[in-house]
Every structure is written in structure tokens, then in C-alpha cells.
Amino acid sequence: MTYRPLDGSSPAEPAQDAGSSRRRFLRATGVAGLGAAAFAAGAGDAIAAPGEDRPDASDRADDSDERGAAARPAGTRSPVRTGTGLDRLPHPLVIGHRGAPGYRPEETLGSYELALELGADVIEPDLVPTKDGHLVVRHENNIAETTDVADHPEFAGRRTTRTVDGQALTGWFTEDFTLAELKTLRAKERLPQQRQRNTLYDGRWQILTFRELADFARKRGRELGRDVWLYPETKHPSYFRSIGLPLEERLADELRRTGLAGRSGRAILQSFEPSSLQRLARLVENPRIQLLGGPTSQPYDFVLAGDKRTVADLVKPEGLRWIASFAHGIGPTTQLIAPVDANGKLQAPTTLVRDAHAANLLLHPYTVRNENGFLPLDYRRGTDPNAYGDAIGWARYLYELGVDGFFTDQADTSILARQDFWAAEGVS
Question: How far apart are CA 309 and CA 195, in angstroms?
Fold first, then answer.
């Protein structure tokens, strides 16, 4: 396959075309942002039971081996909604998932710096609280795998077992540490077997606070001559609320303090728990994205409330309309859009893109990665699961299915795929 970037730039030197051509693309596709009216809707935490609407199997593509535009479901044009400021961003988005963890330990300053150098439009932090109420940037509150805490004898007594979202976990947890104590630790690579080269940077960076990341984004945006947006996720919000460390009020306060709050701000909010987004809707007028796991999974606040709905219910048309009452988009797994069989081979795409857009929702699926082990069989190269496959082709396929952006561990390859996609769409 031959790739034709718009300007022939290398991965380390992405095209700096964030101006007129991207705005023309937004106008051409009808993507003018998200609906202001949705900010007023769905503010309550009550969970309404959906009906039994199901996507019609006849609307799926017939050939599971089909790639590209021919496999694109009908009706994939993005929703036309205005009022949140997302029209200031390129379309489709390249979201630096925890920065650039394909190349640097995740959720570190080095990871976020590199993501922006590689061309990411938005950078994503996961947020968990400290004992003294600060929001810090970590993939999980259990920091055993992402820091050198085990090497600190002064914290040996803090190792414990906690039940988080119904799962017993053993390790060290941010809620048992003050911010000052966490600042004595250093980050390390979470996936050393898959990303051994990243271990070169183990011990180089501290744990970041959300405020520090926001300050970095503002400063780096001035240097780049463009706004740098953040895409924070509230992690395990019901669990933290149950132990007296609620996330939403803290996040809203930090958004206001750092100038990121509201429709004129530079933050997109996300959570796996609908009630967290509903609380945030009452606090700040930022765009909100409902994350969705595998089809048989449930948001943990559903489990606590006795709500029997699964993700399979939420991706039905009626479930999507319910999500649209409090959110502006969904962040599904890629398999909810482009499923694979037991061998990892792509099957026909689902109707989720069409159905979500019909419900006036954007789609930002997760997570696109370069390594074979994370790719569908169709895009793998060779048998080494840690070697790179055709990640550019996989990203291009998702763009052609009509997604509005996606989370990626390697922003540079997604940027190249988007350049190819724009060129094929006639965007100059």
C-alpha cells in the first residue's frame, strides 16, 4: 500500500495545517461542533430503562473482508451541532491517549510533550485523587505498575488490598498518599514486555497534577501557536465518592482555576460512568463523552444502582438517544465499530457510526496502537506481537468508517493516516 501524506512530511514533522484546510473540511462535512441545547438536557442522575430497538442486520456491510469507503455504513456524516467550541478543532481528531505511550512512559510530561510534537490535537489524562484531595494524572489509583513505589522502603507499609469497582486489587493506592509523598516517586513504563524501549525513561519524570498538566498545555499552546486541549477522564468516580474523595467537584474547580471550563474552554470530559457525566453537566458546560467498554460490560454505577443494562443495550438506537440526553458523544472500543472474530480477523462493520450520528453523538473510539498484538489480523505484519503492523492502514480504515477521531498511543502514524484520508476526500 502506498501512503501519500499531503506534504510528504515525516512522522516527526507532521504537517502544520491546522488553519484554513481543516476549517474547510469541517464545513464540508457539516461538523460545526456540538449542540448547545444538549447542555441543558439530562442533568439528573435518574436512569431510564431503554426499549428493545436493535440495529437492522441488513444495514451491515455484506463482505467482512471489505476495507475502505466501500465498507462504510450509510449515514456516517457527523452530527451538526453548535455551541461547545469543538469546531475550533480539526476533524477527525487525533487524541494523544495518555500522551504518546508508544514511545514514552504514559501520563508523564515527556509523554505529553512528545504527543504534541508528533501532531496530536488533544492530549488525554486519567485523573485520580490523593489523600489530601489533589487530582493527579495516573492510569489507575493503583500505582504499583506505573511508579517505583515498590522501591521505597518508607512506603512498604502502605501496600494493601482494596476492592475497586468490585475487583480486589493489591498494591499502593493514590488515595493513601499525600501529594507531597507522591512527588517523591518516579514514573515507569507500564508495559515493559511490549514496549521495552520505553524502559529507558524509567525514573525520569514525576507524577503530574492535573493543574501542572493544564499549565503545561497553556504554555505549550503559546509556543505552538494553537490551543492545546485536554481530554480528562474521571476514573472510578463511584468508588472515590464512596470514600469521600468525589472527582467531579474537584475537576470542575480545577477547570475553572485553569481557564478550561465552559464552552469557550479547552477541555473535553469523559467517563465510563454516566452519573459522573451527569454531575459534571451540572457543574461546567464542557463537552462530554460517554466511554463504552465491551458489549457484555456494565458501567459500575449501573451495577451499584441495580440497572441491568449492558453496553450492548446502550449502543442500540434507544440507548444512544438516552446517552445524548447528557453527553455529546461516545468513546466506544474499536470492536463496537469494527468487530473481529476469534482469530482477530475483521468482520463487517456494525451500524454504530450511523446510529450514533443519528442520535446526534460524535464517536471517539479507543485505542489505536502500532503493535501487531493490538491490531486486527488483517493489519498485522509478521508473527511478532510487539513488532509494528500496518497501523496507518488500520487508522485510515477507521476514518473511512466515519469516526470523528480516536485515541492513539502513537500520534504520528494517526496523523499520516488522516493526511491520506483528507487527500482521498479531496481536502486541500
Answer: 36
Instruction: List beta partners, residue 366.
Output: 333
Residues 83, 33 contacting (CB under 8 angstroms): yes
Please, are residues 118 and 415 in contact by the beta-carbon 8 Å criterion? yes
Residue 76: what pLDDT? Answer: 56
pTM summary value: 0.83
Element (H, E) at 122: strand 122-124
Cβ atoms of residues 116 and 220 within 8 Å:
yes
Q: What is the CA radius of gyration of the chain?
A: 21
pLDDT of residue 46: 35
Burial 267-306 (b: 16+ CB within 10 A, else e): bbbbbbbbbbbbbbbebbbbbbbbbbbebeebbbbbebbe
Q: What is the pLDDT of residue 109?
A: 98
Q: Which three cell numbers stand for residue 167?
A: 475487583
Q: Any residues with CB less than 8 A from the CB of 367 and at least 6 apart, and which? A: 97, 334, 374, 406, 407, 408, 409
Strand partners, 162: 169
Please return the burial class of 69, using the count of CB atoms within 10 Å of its CB with bins 0-12, 13-18 and 19+.
Answer: middle
Q: Judge contact between 115 and 125, C-beta under 8 A.
A: no
Listed in sequence order, the residues at least 6 apart from 181 whose beta carbon sits closer than 8 Å to its beta carbon are 155
In angstroms, the CA 185 to CA 129 distance is 16
What are 341's three cell numbers? 472474530
Q: How far apart are CA 386 and CA 103, in angstroms?
A: 13
Q: How far apart are CA 258 and CA 132, in angstroms?
A: 20
Strand duo 126-129 + 160-164: pairing: unpaired
Residue 106: predicted pLDDT = 98
* Of 212, 215, 219, 144, nearest in space to 179 by CA: 212
The residues facing 333 across adjacent strands are 366
CB 398, CB 376: distance < 8 Å: no
**Beta-sheet strand order (sheet of 135-137):** 135-137, 126-129, 233-234, 269-271, 288-292, 329-332, 362-363
Q: How far apart are CA 193 and CA 212, in angstroms?
A: 30
Q: Which of 105, 277, 321, 70 is nearest to 192 (CA)?
A: 105
What grid cell was written down for 119? 501532531
Cis peptide before 184 (omega within 30 of 0): no
CA terminus-to-terminus distance, the chain: 22
- β-bridge pairing 135-137 and 126-129: antiparallel
Q: What is the pLDDT of residue 240?
A: 98
pLDDT for residue 15: 34
**Which residue ranges of the chain lie beneath pLDDT 70?**
1-83, 428
